[in-house]
Amino acid sequence: MPLTTGEFATIKSIKDRLPGPPDPNQVWIGDDAAILTLPGGGWLLLAADTVVGGVHADLTLTSMADLGWKAMAACISDIAAMGGEAGYALVTVAGPPGTDLDGLYDGLAEAAQEYACPIVGGDLANARALVVTVAVTGTCDGPPVRRSGARPGDLLWVTGPLGRSAAGLRLLRSGVMGAGRDGPEAESLIAAHARPRARLAAGGAARRAGATAMIDISDGLAADIGHVADMSGVGFRLTEVPIAQGASRDDAVGGGEDFELVFAVPPGSAVPEAFAGLDQLICIGEVTSDPGERILAGRTLDPLGWEHRW
Amino acid sequence: MPLTTGEFATIKSIKDRLPGPPDPNQVWIGDDAAILTLPGGGWLLLAADTVVGGVHADLTLTSMADLGWKAMAACISDIAAMGGEAGYALVTVAGPPGTDLDGLYDGLAEAAQEYACPIVGGDLANARALVVTVAVTGTCDGPPVRRSGARPGDLLWVTGPLGRSAAGLRLLRSGVMGAGRDGPEAESLIAAHARPRARLAAGGAARRAGATAMIDISDGLAADIGHVADMSGVGFRLTEVPIAQGASRDDAVGGGEDFELVFAVPPGSAVPEAFAGLDQLICIGEVTSDPGERILAGRTLDPLGWEHRW
């Protein structure tokens, strides 16, 4: 592959170089989490996520505890996006001497407790940059929901309004204490950025409600719903993007790390009922048969999502 | 914990901050791999290892393919040290744009194939330093071998002579092409450094032969056998360290990354027979009852192993 390539093309190139699963019930590279089958029956999910200081998180705006929380929540969100339950976590920290491991592990441990996903091991190493990698296992009491199962006519739902994390980051970056950062709305947006939530309960409910495809919004709605369309060989028509209070439309369409889930279900499924009391579920459009159709509010969508460069 | 602390003290501090397993059949932090029990019965092993460019590997002396191999083999070695079989791997790469991912994944894929441990997922991220993290699962058809089970009177065995990796690194660092690097011995030592082997078969054989404790030599014999003694609450008396051809005594005692296994078995166990044809098994001493006794060739052993600083 060329020396400098987009992340998604690079992942595809790596996937093409490596052997794929011999068992069609398994999914290896290319979904939120790998789907494996256990010898004794049942499903094992595996996912890994890395948070890099200065890349995923501005260390002048993010506490080490928040960084730890985010690393754990981002990885558990991959299990949520399969409709699974979290199992166990391995945490690996590479960083310079003097790294505030106490703070980092405070946040990691809080998220581990919140999502009942205990930290059972990992590794520590010195490095010039701070790199926190979390790997988690998950289980599923039925077939996990892949990205690839969306069918024309399915309705698309999102587990809440979008753009809160991006708006919170803007508030933090503005550096203005007082006006604009005060009040419950600002605090809530900043918290959405600092302590994103993994939607484990919502993902499980979507799976039980018959979801045909699901993904978590980590790169932005435009990019992530595009992944579902690519993997499913379908298009989509979104009526509008639900914009969180205090967020802009760009925050909602292009901002990542809300970790809300988007999923497809056949029309007529009892989706709102399955979510009663869980989340603010919103129907945002439908799946169409033309893989080239990527429409938001009548206009073709630009995939604005975040990619690392290689 | 203080800002700059040794790695082993830091791991202990982290372990003390986190909850431990409610089930005595499980082991979380503190062994080569975590031991988990599956709902349907059976054992799940989890381990993670990080290789940092410029710290674990001098990138002017190590090819990216060798770095990939080493990252995978080091992690699978943790499964070998429990007497398990490798399952699946997640690979996470953080690095600068322009990183030779083709070369890196060549080495990762070769090791994945060698140890039947396919790469099923992971993550890619940009970072100023190259950090390759591998997490693997493992299974075990009987209770995995912990570090903590050595008993006074047990014999200590090692799966081969030591110091080959350290000697190979010295040859590479000497930078002298020609004399000293030529010939099969030099090539073999350099290969031992560049492409260390995970002793999966030997670990399984040791477990089936009744091993009471086991560890892989990644930090050096002195440090690693010290971990077994610490966890088992015992001491040890080693007659001599087996020195590989071309290696020095310091290479053998203090050098890490040979990934040979050291294990304890009750006297009278049929150990050599269990290993017939597998490895060059050597009895190096015995377990004693005094936890303060750490003797090599009649002298108290200095723990020379490698630690990262925090």
Can you tell me about this structure?
The structure is a homodimer of 310-residue chains. Chain A has 310 residues and is α+β, with helices and mostly antiparallel strands. Chain A has helices at residues 7-17, 64-80, 101-114, 164-174, 183-194, 200-208, 221-232, 249-254, 271-274, and strands spanning 34-37, 43-52, 85-95, 119-126, 131-140, 155-158, 213-216, 235-238, 261-265, 282-288, 294-296, 299-300. In chain A, the strands form two sheets. In chain A, strands 7-9-6-10-8-11-12 form a seven-stranded mixed β-sheet, sandwiched between helices. A five-stranded mixed β-sheet of chain A has the order 1-2-5-3-4. In chain A, a hairpin with a 5-residue loop joins strand 1 (34-37) and strand 2. In chain A, helix 2 (64-80) runs parallel beside helix 3 and helix 4 (164-174) packs across helix 5. Chains A and B meet through helix 1, strand 2, strand 3, helix 3 and strand 4 of A and helix 1, strand 2, strand 3, helix 3 and strand 4 of B.
Strand and helix layout:
Two copies of one chain form a homodimer.
Chain A (H helix, E strand, L loop, with lengths): L6 H11 L16 E4 L5 E10 L11 H17 L4 E11 L5 H14 L4 E8 L4 E10 L14 E4 L5 H11 L8 H12 L5 H9 L4 E4 L4 H12 L2 E4 L10 H6 L6 E5 L5 H4 L7 E7 L5 E3 L2 E2 L10
Parallel strand pairs in A: 3-4, 8-11
Antiparallel strand pairs in A: 1-2, 2-5, 3-5, 6-9, 6-10, 7-9, 8-10, 11-12
Helix pairs in contact in A: 2-3, 2-6, 4-5
* Backbone CA Rg of chain A: 19 Å
Number of strands of chain A: 12
Low-pLDDT stretches of chain A = none
Give the overall form of chain A: globular
Helix/strand/pairing category of chain A: alpha+beta
**What distance separates the N and C termini of chain A?**
9 Å
Q: Supply the number of helical segments of chain A.
A: 9
Helical content class of chain A: 25-40%
For the largest interface, the chains and their residue counts are:
A-B, 70 and 70 residues
Sketch the topology of chain A as an H/E string, one letter per element: HEEHEHEEEHHHEHEHEHEEE
Assembly state of the chains shown: homodimer
Order of strands across the main sheet of chain A = 7-9-6-10-8-11-12
Report the mean per-residue pLDDT of chain A as an integer. 90
Query: How many strands, what sense, and barrel or not for the largest sheet of chain A?
Result: 7 strands, mixed
Fraction in beta strands of chain A: 15-25%
